[in-house]
Amino acid sequence: MPPKNPAPRTVTAGSPLTLPCGAVLPNRIAKAAMSEQLAAIDGSPSPRLTRLYSAWGRGGAGLLVTGNVMIDRRAYVEPRNVTLEDDRHLEAVGNWARAGSRAGAVMVMQINHPGRVAVGPLHRRPVGPSALRPQALGFNLRTPRALSLDDIADLRRRYARTAELAVTAGFSGIQVHAAHGYLLSQFLSPVANQRDDRYGGSPENRRRLLLEVVTDVRDAIGPDAVVSVKLNSADFQHGGLDETESLAVALALEQAGIDLLEISGGNYEAPAMTGVVQGSTRAREAYFLRYAETLRARTAMPLMLTGGVRTLDFINDVLARGSVDVIGLGRPFAVRPAIAADLLTGAGEPQVLPTAPQIPLPAATPINSYLQLAWHAANFRRIAAGKQVRAPGVVRTLAAAGTTVTARALTQF
């Protein structure tokens, strides 16, 4: 007979997790969103994007979160982002969903609008909560148009429609991107949002749109699909969203009934999500752990921690302590598509996870971060083609960056 009071089972990276909606993650390792820039010219998921997710799906992760999927083709984060406004490309979207989930991973589509940091189309004026330019170099060239109440109502419909299409096509749910200085993050920010109507001013008003979007999305996809939100722990800029207010937003999202909160931080002006701005977390591993632990003390909502996680010992430690429920890895998947399987089986040691090449530009760390991301984007294309990922190197990284810049220039219009 089993003991009357069996010892609690220790949670590890390989433990399954049942989300409030009923979706079951087979393990606690997630591929976090990275912008793949592999859509076809018409905004549909390309065969190359589908092959990339097939590789990641076989790689052992319990959760795959896609890169940005745009809710409006009039504004995108980067060239060749997937756009999902209607059902014209639903077959290709379904192929994408099946490719990632075939081996058991839960596929979640990240849906987003860039707001005032849209890179294109260049002939269109970007929009934002207020007519205020961001301070980030390159994004401060155009003054955004402040959204009207009718515009906001249209945006709400677009978020809900994109979510509905994603689930109809076969995705297990969606992630609403409310971090990194994109549109919903802009509404949360006292710096970007200086409205004087019901969507601005007080913290409650500035979080109103996000909560409305979450409600609209839930109504569109039902109680059994995943509704996740990606939220900044802080904006890491003077006058921006701070940790205290972010915690209040997180608790409001719990009340709204989301299934998983992914914790991140920063924006284009202070890119903490890339490690350029780091807090004093344990041994500099996991940029946003302290925030996660503070939030955990106030909520049982499932939490996903992404950013700077580098060792299996650390992953198992924070999961066993219950600090978070899911560990998100981004750039390591661009280096080793089967990194999750390697971690779960103990293969592929040493324990330090692979990271991006470091370019010798200590005085220009944002440029360094951009070059690393460009190198990863080149790796996505190699993974999709079934090729070996190349070893980090300065020459290859600079070449990848040049290719990315050229692609942007050719597709801005």
From TrEMBL:
InterPro entries: Aldolase_TIM, NADH_flavin_oxidoreductase, OxRdtase_FMN_N. Keywords: Flavoprotein, Oxidoreductase. GO terms for molecular function: FMN binding; oxidoreductase activity. The keyword Oxidoreductase applies. Residues 23-340 form the NADH:flavin oxidoreductase/NADH oxidase N-terminal domain. This is NADH:flavin oxidoreductase.
